Every structure is written in C-alpha cells, then in structure tokens.
Amino acid sequence: MVTSSMGKKMWGSALVACLMFGLAACGNNGNNSNSGDAANAANADTSGNAAANGNTSAGATNGTNASGDAADASKLEPVDLTWYYLQPGAQSDLSSIEDAVNKITQAKINATVKLKPIDGGEYNQRMNTVAASGEAYDIGWTSNWLFDYVGNANKGVFKPLDDLLDKYGVELKASLPDFMWEQVKVGGHIYGVPNYQSVTGREGFVVPQDIIDKYKLDLSTVKKFEDIAPALDAIKKAEPKMSPIVMDRNGMFGYLINSQGIDSIPVTSQNPIGFYNTDDTVKLFNVYASPEFKHYAEVVRDWYQKGYVNADAPTNKSVDDVTKAGQGYITYSNGLNPGSEVSMSNNRYNGKPVVFAPLTNFLISSNPGIATVNAISANSKNPERAMMFLNLVNTDKELYNLLSFGIEGKHYDKVGDNTVKVKEDGGYANNYPWVYGDTFNGYLMDGQAADTFEVQKKTNAEATPTKIVGFKFDTSSLTAEIANVQSVLDEYMPGLSTGAVDPAKKLPDFLDRLQKAGIDKIVAEAQKQVDAWKASK
Amino acid sequence: MKQTLTGGRAVVNAIFCLISIAMIIPFLLVISISLSDEQSLLEHGYKWFPEKFSTLGYQVMLRSSHAIVHAYGVTILVTVIGSLAGLLLTAMTAYTISRKDYRYRKPLTFYVFFTMLFQGGIVPLYILMTRYLHLRNSVWALVLPLLISPFYVMIMKGFLGKIPGEIIESVKVDGASEWRIFFQIVLPLSKPALVTVGLMLSFGYWNDWFNGLLFIDDPNKVPLQLLLYRNMNAIEFLKATAIAQHFNIDVSKLPSLSARMAMTILAAGPMMIVFPFFQRYFVGGLTVGAIKE
C-alpha cells in the first residue's frame, strides 16, 4: 500500500509539473521580445566593425561607384553574407538561384550570399528568436506587418544605415524618391532600405464586368459607398438568390474609411482612432463614436435586411471563397492600384474581368514605405559589404530579376519585351518580388499592362499623402488597452460592420465597452505623440 | 474470457463508442475533402462523400513528391534514432534514480524534476543549439532537444521503483555487474513501460515541427510535419494579412483545399498504421502498475 500511494503521488505531481511546464513555456514566449535588449546591449561594442572598416577602405575611397566597378572586387576580402527573408513555401530549386546570385555578387563585390528564406507563418517567431539570440546574420527582411520594423529598430536590432548609405549605397540612395527615405526613419535615423513599389491605396468597389453589362450599371455615379445601393437593388430583384455585395466579418467600414472623410492610425486590425482628413490640426477621436460610423452601420443594416449582403458575412473570413463559388458579385478593397486588376480578378473572380469603381483619389497612408524593408543586423560582421549588396540588388536589374523570377527558360518564359510568365512547376515560383528590392526594376507579370510601372510611379508621385505621413505610433505603453480594445472590436464589429445586428440596440453597448476597454487612453497617447511629431517637423 | 453485457457496461461502451466516432468522423471528412474536386468544394461546401471525385489534390502534392519523400526520410530517421536513443537514456536515468541504495537519489530526482517546472525557454535553446553546438541544419537539431523528457523519466522511475530491490540484491550476490543487471534483468522486466515510453517518444518525434522551424533551413532536411504545417499555413497567413491586397499577391496559386487535406492524409497515414501494432503493449504498460496494487 505504501508503494502504491507513493506511485499515485508521483503521477499526481508529474501531472501538476506537466501543467506548469506548459505555463512556463508560454511565459517564455511572451518574454521573447524583451530579451532582445540584453542581446543588443552585448552588441553595442563595435570594435569589430571598426576593424572591418579598415579592411574595406579601398571601397570607401572609390565613393560613388564602390559596388558597380568590377575592378574593386579584387581589392575586397571575400566574405559570406546571410540574408533572412520572406518566401512562400519551399522552393525546390533555390540552390541554383543561390549559385547564379553568387556568380554576380562575387564578380561585383567579392561576396557570396547565403539565402535563408522563411515561410510567412513562421517568420515572426523565427526572426524574433534570431534577433533575441544575437545571431550574427547580415540582412533581415522586416516590415510594419511582420517582424515589426519600428519596434525592432527602437530595440537596436538593426544597424543605423545613414553613414553606410552615403559611403556604399550612393546609387541606391539616389534611385529612390526622398519621401521613401523619410518613411524608414526611426528617431531620425534610417534603419532599413525600403523596397520601392506602388505605395498608394485607393478605396472603392470591385465589380465584375459581366454584371455591368447585364444590368447596364453606371459606375460613374458612385461617389460615396451608399451610392452603390441602386446597383445592388437591381441585381437582387433579378437574382434573388445571389448576394449582390459580398462582405467578410470585418465589413466595409475599415476598407472604405477614407471615402467617409476619416483618416485612421493603424493600431488594431480595425483601426479604432482617426481624424478628419481635412483637419490640419489632426484632432484624433474614436472613429466608432463618430456620426460617420453610425450612418454607415444604419446603411449596411438596411442592406443586410434587404438581403444585399451575404447572410454569413459576420462569420465569413474571406470574400474570395464566396465570389469564387459564384454566390455573390460586388466586393470592395482599399488597394485599387493601377495594375492590380489582374490579381484581383484571379483572387476573387476566377480570372473573369473586373472594373474598379473608386471612391477616393490615390492615397498614401502614414507608413506605406515600411511595408517591405531590408535591414542590416546590428550583429552583422560585414555591414559594409551587406550595404554594397543591398545597393546591388536595388540597382542591378539582372540580380533583382534572378531573385524574383529565377532563371530564364527554367523558371520562367519571356512572353514580351519586359513581361514574363512564371512556370508553376519550375521549382522556383515565389511570387514575392517585393521582398528583394525596388520592384520597378523587375519584369512585369503576364497580363499586366506594359506601362504598369510608369503609371504606378506616376500615381506614387501624384497621390495625396495623409497629413501624418511618416508618423509612427509607438504603442509600447498601451499594450493592455490595445488588447482590450481589440477583443471588444472582435466581439462587436462582425455584427455591426456587416449589418447583421441592429445598431440602434448594439451601438451604444459597443461604445460603452470601448470606453471601458480604455480607448480614450489610446486616443490621448496618440494625440500626444502626433502633437510632438508635428512640433518636430 | 467472455464478459456478459450488463447495463453499466453497456453505458460505458456506448460512451466510448461516441468518443471514438467523434474522433473518426472529422478524419473521414478530411479524406472526403482530399478526394473532392476543388470547385465543387467551393460551391457545395464539405460533404461526407465527394460530390465530384478528383485525385487532383494528391497529384498536386505528389508533383513535388521529392520534397515529401525527403521529409519522410528525415522524419523516419529522426523518429527511429531519437526513440531508441531516447528510450535507452530515459531508462538509464530512471533506473539510476529509482535505486534505493543510490546515495544521491533525492537530489538527482529533484534535479530532473526541476526541469519540468522551469526551463530556459526558446532563446537560450536557440543560442545553445546554433552558437555553441553548431547544429543548425543538422538532423541532430531535430533529435537532441526531444531526447530526454523529465516527464517520461518520472513515469519510468515510477515503474522501475516497483521492481523489488531483493531481485537486484540477489543477482548482485550471484556476481552480476551493474551493466548486466540493467540490461539483462531490469530492462526485460520493464518491457511494458519501455514500450509505453518508447511510443510516446516516437509520437513526439513524429509530430515535432517546432525544432525544424527553428533550426532547419535546408529544404532537404525539413521534417514531414513542418512541411504539412507550412502547406496548411501559407494560405491562412496571406488571407489573414489584409496587406496581401496591397502587394497584388495572387492567392489563387496557393495549394488548394483538397491538396492541403491530401497532405494531411499523407502525413498522418503511417502513424495510424503503426499504432495498432503497439497498442497491445501500450494498454499493458498503462495497466501494469494498477494490477500490482
């Protein structure tokens, strides 16, 4: 009996231990971001870099074309660079890309590059671990939506590039418009090289061409989101089983917020704070307490009751599935950029032609420039060479296209002067050209108009930037409030924003809960930071 | 030995039947989806029997068959090496701390137990593996972290503790060395516990993807579950990321629903076939302690 009760105890404590073990593991996850500081403190010592500077002084004196000149390469010590970046799935033929890349880089900057792609779902976890461990990698891809650029720059994960750019990245610096460099500044320093691309957004509806023809829709009269209602009505009358407009659980409000006169600051998945986009003083407020949101909620409520909206909208995670299955027609987006008709039609309408009905001009939000950035690690042993490499990727079209599309004939076919068709089974079809560098140096995808890049560059230059372009909201003191607000949004927005619940009943509840969750504190802190940011301009 | 079906027993049986059905049904649904035509899935949703039969999902997965074959190879290798080595080390540790005549039994037990409560966490693990052991991209990075689990050591110790000390004593008197006692007396006596722990270890290895995620870059060394995890995640990731719209990513080119389900079947398959063979021992291992009470 004694032994058996001992045995039971053992099992019991083992069980308890097992639970504790799980908790401890969670706690550690949460702390990952903090441990980065310790790792970086250890790297503050830059003596290693100083030595490396001496080695490459030959390159430095050449100044303007340190990287372009093949004669330089022989004077440089051979080095190995590592580059972590985002790639969808494993590409089986990556090694032949790496070989071809190294042929170019060895000739031009006497460096080889080890490509270390990481899948999207793993990127945050993996890169946070790499950064916190103080690993000596050279280049890491970062952004404002994955492996946070601003937060990590503040923590010292990345090297300030101002001097390196002036010495080894002269061509690169000149190749991008100044506002892009403004975008990547954190605390006055540049910490990363932005991958230049279409930086604009435009809000509006996406309408399949066959519906326009069938119902003789006149999209030119659609100036506000509610102006689409007559079209919805016409479709509903003729095809009562279809959903004239398809929404997901986020509804339209956040996507079409600018068309309602409000500019928002990214905080949570549905941005809860904003200001009127004509207001020069940038007075922030809770957007859900605004008359605009009330009006929106009432309009979509009416739509939902009339059957314009797909009935499963509050639980639907993706509009694509509904439209692809042919159960609905009109959708909406805030990314109606020139050239995006092709991907929009493939993603949502099985390749059927679509027409955009924009509600706004082309817009530039506060931080489109940090949506895709390559930064040099603070632990890099060869930051000079890494800079030369980034300079090369952003200015050498051959290298850029090699990384983006692979090897001609093997991974893609040329179907036009500057247009390619990627072979799906070629072993390198990664579809993420914006990860590597300046996308305007690349080939066009089959189906994009020949002047796509010119048009995109032009819209970039002519677009209306938000009044707070370049402002970066530091949310580190607000984590609890943001999490609380997020959970209130998750609870109420699917119903209110799709019209599934009555705003007369639920909206007051929603606002009350937001209040309790601390939205006012977020507004106040954001206002403080915006005011300070404005004063510093 | 036949048992009559009394009322109470019938209820118990019914409950377990329901639990089993609850586990089997989703799996059948996955099989059905993996054999369905993509378009019919979008139009009619999931069905118990494929609306329109199609093996395209499997064709898509097998088109990149060398990735799957490699992943299988890696996972099998890691599972076999890891389970055998892990089992030996677990048994040795457990045996040592179960011997009542071992002076440091208590502190050592506490030392093992302590790691169940507190552990270094991911970052120190990552630093240790990459910077000190230099095991990045090595199959050992998949084997070592799971080699000894304190939990299994404790289970094993609980079992070995019940082997009467007198047996060991008497063999000692007959002149057997410690090694011989361990390998020829103790191990054969603890077969049920070994099979139980061995099975749990091998499940651990078979289902592990996290170590692969942290330490493996080389596409030829990716374990099976990580491959599955990636396939399942790629679409979710892009769809959850509204920014995908900005980048004009063509989501239509990502693995389709049926292909992902086909991958699930391919990854889960072998373990389901292996499990019944061990089940006999597994049940034995779980109940041995109880019978002795």
From TrEMBL, chain A:
UniProtKB keywords = Signal
The record ties this protein, via InterPro entries, to: DUF3502
Keyword Signal attributed: yes
Signal as UniProt keyword: yes
Q: What is the lineage of its organism?
A: Bacteria, Bacillati, Bacillota, Bacilli, Bacillales
Gene3D superfamilies in alphabetical order? Periplasmic binding protein-like II
- This chain's source organism reads Paenibacillus sacheonensis
Protein name per UniProt: DUF3502 domain-containing protein
Check the UniProt entry and state the signal peptide residues, or none: 1-24
| Pfam families xref list | DUF3502
Automatic annotation (TrEMBL), chain B:
Q: Which PROSITE patterns would you find in this protein's record?
A: ABC_TM1
Localization in the cell: Cell membrane
> What are the protein's UniProt keywords?
Cell membrane, Membrane, Transmembrane, Transmembrane helix, Transport
Q: Please give the name of this protein.
A: ABC transporter permease subunit
- The superkingdom listed in its UniProt entry is Bacteria
Q: Which PANTHER family match?
A: ABC TRANSPORTER PERMEASE PROTEIN MG189-RELATED-RELATED, POLYGALACTURONAN_RHAMNOGALACTURONAN TRANSPORT SYSTEM PERMEASE PROTEIN YTCP
Specify the protein's topology with respect to the membrane: Multi-pass membrane protein
What family is this?
A: Belongs to the binding-protein-dependent transport system permease family.
* Membrane-crossing segments per the record: 12-35, 71-96, 108-127, 139-160, 181-206, 257-278
Q: Where is the ABC transmembrane type-1 domain?
A: 72-278
One Pfam family per UniProt: BPD_transp_1
